[in-house]
Write a structure and sequence with these properties.
Layout: H1 18-24, E1 37-42, H2 47-53, H3 56-70, H4 77-90, E2 93-94, H5 97-100, H6 104-112, H7 116-119, H8 130-133, H9 135-143, E3 149-150, E4 168-169, E5 172-173, E6 182-187, E7 189-190, H10 204-207, E8 219-223, H11 228-231, E9 237-239, E10 255-260, H12 268-271, H13 273-287, E11 291-292, E12 301-303, E13 309-310, E14 314-329, E15 334-348, H14 358-367, H15 373-380, H16 390-401
Parallel strand pairs: 2-3, 10-14
Antiparallel strand pairs: 1-14, 4-5, 6-10, 6-12, 7-11, 8-9, 8-13, 14-15
Helix pairs in contact: 1-3, 2-4, 9-13, 14-15
């Protein structure tokens, strides 16, 4: 066995079905194919980690057993591991609807920027206390978001899959939900005092009315047609810059924060993008900082292609400790990848030229070959940069698509 591998072979008395035994008898000489066995290691469930930690003889056996059990004809271990790992992560999935347990209407309204968690302000008697009303968010963070794969709600929440085929950015049509591999939230208000974030203060009735989050971006414009299903506005646009004077930060304080992921379904942030959405939108910003509400005409949180065009956004990525066991069960003729998630950490993202910057994170993924250039170019049309003048330049370009030009 390869010295890099940590391989546990648990042999139990059992008989292999004759048809599988006949096919894999020669391939499974290291791992006793006439009995149950398992191969375990610490690390990600993907092709690279498997091939680095598991010896070739065991890999040959896994290929044969998978083909015999599933009727496939794979010759490369990478194809087998990919299929098993995708199934293994799917088996660990926690439904997004289980976070609030308030139903699809509540969830859709919340991510559009409405609902009680966004609108209510705590009273002097303690009513509408956010951490109590949304206490399930803390429970999910401690018991699920650090131990499970949280489902990404692109089948259930409209702002993450509005099926807006008329919306196209850099010739990428808005069809599948988060076609650009990026999502972010923009929060317009702070509703929680005493957390060292934003300027909401007590007493709530006097010092927490229309209060601001920490400002980290400029809004350029909102194309309402991009998110009509979430905002209930079919068309039109809102401009948040002053082209005549050159002023850009005229909207007040807004805080944007998001995440991006690689094209490979097994890339770490792709697997855990539902966790990232939950952490960014509900745990870190809402219950810990009190940041809520949306930019008018834009969802509070959505796929990047359906959000307001802004100068920048902060971002988060995950770091995950996993243990993986590939199990062969003789009785069921089943080969499975069982993934134990020991811990998930949520960290400020590392970028190409700057950290904690969503666009720079996308650029770094492109440099690493994890995210296509055409998607990053499209993201650059949505997160346009913080240099003075870039927001207004984006506005002028957008207005040109509406046949509106500056009078000189």
């Amino acid at each position: 066995m390869n010295s890099k591998a940590f391989i546990l072979l648990a042999i139990q008395a059992a008989s292999l079905p004759p048809s599988v035994l006949a096919v894999c008898e020669n391939e499974c000489t290291t791992n006793n194919a006439t009995a149950d066995f398992s191969i375990s290691y610490s690390g990600r469930c993907n092709e690279e980690t498997f091939e680095a930690k598991v010896d070739e003889a065991s890999a040959t056996c896994v290929i044969c057993l998978h083909n015999a059990a599933k009727g496939t004809t794979f010759t490369e271990i990478s194809n087998v591991v990919r299929e098993l790992c995708l199934d293994g992560y799917a088996a660990q999935t926690f439904p997004y609807s289980e976070i609030t347990r308030k139903g699809p209407q509540f969830d859709n309204e919340h991510y559009s920027g409405g609902g009680e968690w966004n609108y209510e302000i705590e009273t002097a008697t303690g009513e509408d206390h956010l951490k109590e009303d949304a206490s399930r968010v803390n429970d999910v963070f401690y018991y699920e978001a650090q131990r499970k794969v949280i489902e990404f709600p692109d089948k259930s929440i409209e702002s993450f899959n509005p099926y807006n085929s008329d919306n196209s950015i850099n010739e990428i049509q808005d069809l599948d939900g988060c076609d650009l591999n990026a999502a972010y939230c923009c929060f317009a208000q702070d509703r929680q005092a005493g957390d060292n974030n934003g300027n909401c203060a007590t007493p709530y009735e006097y010092n927490c009315v229309d209060k601001d989050p920490a400002d980290n971006t400029n809004i350029c414009y909102v194309d309402h047609a991009r998110s009509s299903m979430a905002s209930d506005v079919d068309s039109g646009f809102s401009i948040f810059g002053d082209l005549q004077t050159g002023k850009e930060n005229i909207e007040g304080s807004v805080h944007c924060h998001g995440f991006t992921w690689g094209d490979d379904p097994l890339s770490q942030d792709n697997v855990y993008k539902g966790n990232l959405l939950f952490y960014v939108s509900m745990y870190d910003h809402m219950t810990q900082r009190g940041y809520v509400r949306n930019i008018p005409g834009s969802p509070m949180c959505a796929c990047a292609e359906n959000m307001a065009v802004v100068s920048r956004a902060d971002c988060t990525q995950v770091e995950v400790d996993e243990k993986v066991t590939f199990q062969w069960n003789v009785t069921d003729s089943a080969l499975d990848a069982v993934i134990y998630i020991d811990d998930i950490d949520y960290n400020a993202c590392t970028g190409l030229d700057a950290n904690n910057n969503l666009l720079e994170r996308a650029r770094k993924l492109k440099q690493n070959g994890d995210l296509g250039e055409e998607k990053v170019t499209a993201i650059e049309e949505i997160l346009v940069g913080s240099t003075a003048g870039q927001c207004n330049a984006a506005i002028e370009t957008f207005l040109g698509t509406k046949n509106i030009s500056r009078i000189t």
